[in-house]
Amino acid sequence: MVTGDQVSLARAGDAEAFRAVTEPYRAELHVHCYRMLGSFQDAEDALQDTMLAAWQGMGGFAGRSSIRTWLYRIATNRCLNARRATSRRRAHEWDVPGVVPPEPTRLGEIVWLQPYPDTLLADTGEAGPEARYERREAISLAFITAVQALPPRQVAVLLLRDVLGFHAVEVAEMLDTTVDSVTSALKRARASLPRPTGDRPPAPHSSAEDAIVAKFVHAWESANLDALIDLLTDDAFIAMPPIPFEYQGRDLVACFCAEIFGAGRRFDLVPTRANGQPAFGAYLRDPSGIGHGNGLYELTLSGDRISAMTRFDNTVLPWFGLPRSLPCPRPAN
């Protein structure tokens, strides 16, 4: 628990006291920056900027709000600056050797989207009494993607009010605006978000989730297209940022996967978790059987089916403690 003496020492420039005062909030601030920006890398940068600004401004902290609220004010405004910048991650060209993809349903615009490791979500203690979203829903890829399409100020208000539970007066002070402006922005943001569809996913680590995961791993590692199709919802969806191609509907997803399997690409999957859902490090087997890190697959589950699969490139593997290659050959299925 942060004490008044620690705050006083931090204000006087004591580095150890500053760390003691701010460290309890680092994890939840990182998640907040991720929600604001949709990118793990950008969130890392925004968090570092936040902590630097807090250190430089600590002497002027007047105590009119809590340290937590003060830090959220800094972090939110750093993220708003980042969202206005033009240097966001750019789209990549299709780069899978030997595979000619079918015509996509559309080209996605949120190409900077990245996954968030579940291991960093433990006990962040973010939600306040006015929060409307469950923590799992508020970190899902569907939610993160949806808020990226909102204007920056609406995103900030939605997250601070509906996810974190700050009062309207607090949010107005954080954003240097009025309560009426906060209320109006929140109303527009809520109206713009798509309504959830489909069945609720099974509970994490439940027998129901384990059963779906086991079937998916078997289907994907054995390149069994029929078994994979049986797992998909009718409106199943595939995305692969930073490649903008998106495929909607079970038939088109099946066509895309058939091209992958038909090219002779075979994978081993290493389980992990991202955004509250099952995920896998994907390792492409070479002729010797050694697996080379090809990317990370994240599933979105709906009832007892898979409603979406998002494939991220192999640069994200280290965030999940996954190696760039599997050093020992694994037997083919």
Number of helices: 13
C-alpha Rg (nearest Å): 22 Å
| CATH fold name of one domain | Nuclear Transport Factor 2, Chain: A
Mean pLDDT, all residues: 92
N-to-C terminal Cα separation, in Å? 52 Å
Question: Major β-sheet, in short?
Answer: 8 strands, mixed
Strand content: 15-25%
Number of strands: 8
- State the share of residues found in helices, binned by percent: 40-55%
The stretches of 5 or more residues where confidence is low (pLDDT under 50) are none
In the CATH scheme, the class of one domain would be: Alpha Beta
Order of helices and strands: HHHHHEHHHHHHHEEHEEEEE
Would you identify the CATH architecture of one domain? Answer: Roll
Any idea what the shape is?
elongated
- Output the structural class: alpha+beta
What is the compact description of this entry?
The protein is built from 13 helices and eight strands. With 333 residues, it is of the alpha+beta class.
Features of this protein?
333 residues; Rna Polymerase Sigma Factor, Chain: A; Nuclear Transport Factor 2, Chain: A; eight-stranded mixed β-sheet; 43% helix; elongated
Would you write up a description of this structure?
The protein is an alpha+beta fold and 333 residues long. It has helices at 4-11, 15-22, 26-37, 40-57, 67-84, 135-139, 141-148, 152-163, 168-174, 179-192, 207-221, 225-230, 250-262; strands at 106-107, 232-240, 243-248, 267-274, 277-285, 291-302, 305-312, 325-326. Strands 1, 2, 3, 4, 5, 6, 7 and 8 form an eight-stranded mixed beta sheet that branches. Helix 3 (26-37) crosses helix 4, helix 3 (26-37) runs parallel beside helix 5 and helix 5 crosses helix 9 (168-174). The chain is elongated and about 65 Å long. The model has no long low-confidence stretch (mean pLDDT 92).
